[in-house]
Amino acid sequence: MSLRAVGAIALRQFYLLRGSPTRILPLFAWVAIDIVLWGFITRYLNSVGGAGFDFVPALLGAVLFWDFFTRVMQGVTTAFFEDIWSRNFLNIFASPLTTGEYLGGLVLTSVITSILGLATMLALAAGVFGLQFAALGLWLLPYLLVLFLFGIALGILAAGMVLRLGPASEWLVWPIPALLAPFAGVFYPLATLPPWMRAVSRALPPSYVFEGMRALVAGQAPDATLLLAGLGLALLQILLAAWAFRRIYRYTVRTGLLARYSAESF
Amino acid sequence: MRQAAQATVGHDTSAALQVSRLAKRYGEIQAVADVSFTVRHGEIVGLLGPNGAGKTTTIDMILGVLEPDAGQVLIEGIDVAARRKAALARTGFAAVYTALPGNLTVQENLRVFGMIYGVRMLTARIDAVVTQFELERFRHTRCGLLSSGEQMRVGMAKALLNAPGLLLFDEPTASLDPATAQTVRAHLRAVATGQRCGILWTSHNMYEVETVCDRVLFVSRGRILLEGDPRVLPRQHGVANLEELFIRIARERLSGPQGAAA
After folding, report:
1. Domain ranges of chain A
2. pLDDT at A262
3. Number of CB pairs < 8 Å for A and B?
4. Closest-CA distance of chain A to residue B226, Å
5. Which structural domain, as residue segments, surrounds residue B3?
């Protein structure tokens, strides 16, 4: 794998961001709006809910984590969509670039853009609404890592889906986080869910993160084994997503879909 | 007319491109059928044929973005199917239908693609191709703001960045004005001769083909029907010029039983 080729894909995104404020704004704007909205909601709930429960870490922390995952996933898919929007597939795939290098470039782009979003959210949540992330201690890092890995896996899978189904299927990608949120137990314990939904939750690494985070907020020790399970699951899902993308890419090369990508195809 | 002339394909390691028995079918349509030809270093070969003859399908298979049903493509002796990355690192490609991203400047596009192609001393190389295609004043202009002819020149500059052994041009001068087209043809002739680069060139401009190409391959319904020197072929087939020969082949194709893919 050529790191220079990986860097080229990320550099392209940097050039796009540098040249277009309308691309920079969404990196900060949506996460900032979410944090402000949920920050005031939690402040209100704390004022009416009595002294028994602090909604700030439970709800605002959950929003921050979920937004981080969403930004990671969209970091990958948006970078991929840039090649669709600029009809650049033939230039990209008729070059020596491998699918691994291409995906590596998308992931590197997502790392950079999602860290910018995370920094914005942390600054707002801590500075304006008093969210104490230090209370999570060293657990914070593995939690973010699991969410990051799952975001990457889902981003690669979503890119593969759009590669297979054609440019118009882009709209299917945007609601994916919202569809998963009820199963991931972002705002409530998994025990709240009916059994069939809990079965789905077990396949979603974020569910382990949010369960652990709620335990920490409640002053309990989170289950490290569950966290490791989430981590292992996320890593496995990245491998599966990369495998699926490669299979889809091979399919598009075999059928001619890649060479005629702008034509819709099922 | 149907005296098929499949170009000789041996194990010529000095060849820039060797295509052997290439075939591709889309459902009932045989887009490319048993096509074989060679492009030697320093040679410009014209791939001619009516719309839908199979020219672009052939180029897509050479570039590895379309998998052939049968056959083999060797770029400077490297099998594209087995060692795609190494083969394409020695290849340059530009087409009238694949402009570089319009939201990046000329300089940015050349840098990104130079890195993808692993070009050494990239800054100097960018300077060289920018000068070669007279793009200096557009260097910091977004490609989307350029005219189609200027964009095509940027595409050619990208194609030459890696000093390739094989160049594939799909209608490269279609959007250029006559003066620019003449300059570009002269540049590419110099590249073929000076850098010993093999060039496969599709065009519907028969004057251009006669001027530039050392050899032409007439393709129709996915097959090579004729091959030869564009300055000699018309005489051999009893027509006044290459354009008449092209029209004859195209009409024969239209009266035939089945079409072919793009």
Report:
1. 3-255
2. 62
3. 86
4. 27
5. 1-90+187-256
Q: CB-based contact (8 Å) between A262 and chain B?
A: no
Instruction: Band the pLDDT of B6: cuts 50, 70, 90.
Output: very low
Q: H or E stretch including A68?
A: helix A61-85
Look at residue B161 and tell me if it is in a domain. Answer: no
Q: Tokens 């006044």 label which residue?
A: B240
Q: Is the pLDDT of residue B47 over 80?
A: yes
pLDDT at position A46, please? Answer: 81
In a domain, B176, yes or no: no
Mean pLDDT of all residues belonging to chain B: 87
**Residue B248 maps to a domain:** yes
Q: What is the ipTM of this complex?
A: 0.86
Chain Cα centroid distance, residue B30: 21
Residue B147 has a pLDDT of: 86
B110 occurs within a structural domain: no
Q: Chain B closest CA to A22's CA: distance in Å?
A: 13
> B145: Cβ–Cβ under 8 A, 6 or more apart, which residues?
B102
Query: Taking CB atoms and an 8 Å limit, are A256 and B26 in contact across chains?
Result: yes
* Residue of B112, B152, B166 best to disrupt the A interface, most CBs of A under 10 A: B112
Q: What is the CATH number of the domain that holds B9?
A: 3.40.50.300
CB of A17 less than 8 A from some CB of B: no
Beta bridge partners, B19, equal B37, B73
Does B70 contact chain A (CB < 8 Å)? no
User: Which chain B residue has the Cα nearest residue A83?
Assistant: B101
Nearest 5°: CA angle at A184, between A183 and A187? Answer: 105
CB distance A31 to A117 below 8 Å: yes
Domain count, chain B: 1
